[in-house]
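dude i think i finally got it to work??
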Amino acid sequence: MAIKIKSIMIFKIILKLHDMEKQGLKPNISEFFRYTKFRPETFYKHKAVLITLKLIEEEKTSQFPFHTHLKLTEKGRRIAKALKEIEETLF
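look at this
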C-alpha cells in the first residue's frame, strides 16, 4: 500500500502527541486542539492518513461523557523519536 505524505503537518501532529505523552498526558481531541493551537480542520484533514499508516490510534470512552483519546502507536513513537533527533541535530 503506497500512501504519499503530502504535508509536513503529519509530522507536526506526531511530534505534538509525543510531547504530550512525555508530559504524561493522554489527550482527548479537544485537549489536543487547546494544547497545539491547531485548527480542527487541519487535524481532521490528516487523521485518516495517520491512522492508515498506524501512527496514531483513537480510544473512545464507553461512558458519559464520551471522549475520543489520541495516542501514538509504537511505530508513531519511533518516528517521533527519530524526528526529535533530526530536530536536535539541525538546531
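The first strand starts at residue 56 and ends at 60.
im so relieved honestly
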